[in-house]
Amino acid sequence: MALADGAFGKAEQNADGSVELALTLDDNRTASLVFGQYDQNLARIERRLNVVLNTNGNHVAIKGPAEAAGHARRVLQILCDRARSGQLATMGDVDGAIQECALQGNLFPKEAPSPRSTFEQIATRKKGSVRARTAAQDLYIRELRRFELVFAAGPAGTGKTWLAVGHAVSLLEQGVVERLILSRPAVEAGERLGFLPGDMREKVDPYLRPIYDALQDFMDPRMVERGMQTGMIEVAPLAFMRGRTLTNACVLLDEAQNATSMQMKMFLTRLGEGSRMIVTGDPTQTDLPPGQRSGLSEAISLLSGLEGVGHVTFTEEDVVRHDLVRRIVGAYEAATRRERERPLPPSPIDKDWSP
Q1: What pLDDT was estimated at residue 173?
Q2: In this model, does residue 4 exceed pLDDT 50?
């Protein structure tokens, strides 16, 4: 752990019930990585946990309610462990550490701590270890390891696709699967792009670009290009899956809310021996024609209880892309709930009818 000997000192309790803790990091370089630019990470911890953090070089004084102060200390420990590898802690890392610590025992425990004290991780050669930032992401990674078919549904920015690609790359690097097949329905988001020039790959690139971006986060671009040339990595529209049997592969269907019921059934029945399948999407953002049911919602309803099938639901609280994205998603969700709760106006027939 990246803390100097005797770093915690003694917890001093004040008359108002608050405590003061002293924390000493390894050195000033580690402290700068943990604190963030202009101490922005410390400011975020203060706002989220209602504590006061005062720094002097690599020393931190924590003041606040006993439980909150212990929580803040453990957050700094997690960030400090990451800083030892030279990684600057981001605001998202701070939020993830805060949620992770919620699963751990308190500094002044009233009961035994949870047996699971840390979130799960995904490790790849390029990215190293990537740890879950929310309890839902933690569950997601565990479901991916446990089940052959996993559904992940929830709003944008929760890491559904990104973690799925990372897991797929880790399986490929470990030799668990021999190839990656990444797919999306080629559905336009409320627009008509018209004729697209180029060969088939160039035509479908605009639809599949988010998958390319996630893939290159976890693999060297040269390895990605080589894998696509040899067939070890395949990125293709959903329509290209018909008639195939996908063996010894990790297969990801992204933006699955835009798949029809028939397309979803076709895709799920492609699963072959030694393969894993991950289906992700946001049921609230379907671009299918009005009146056409999303294949994702139907599949989750029909298959979630089957043996060998995992299902994770993300909410607005799990958004990790940007704090503003979390608030935007929350505003839309609140508007949707109000719309559902609004009573229907009386029918003109019911109003005018009399016995």
Answers
A1: 94
A2: no
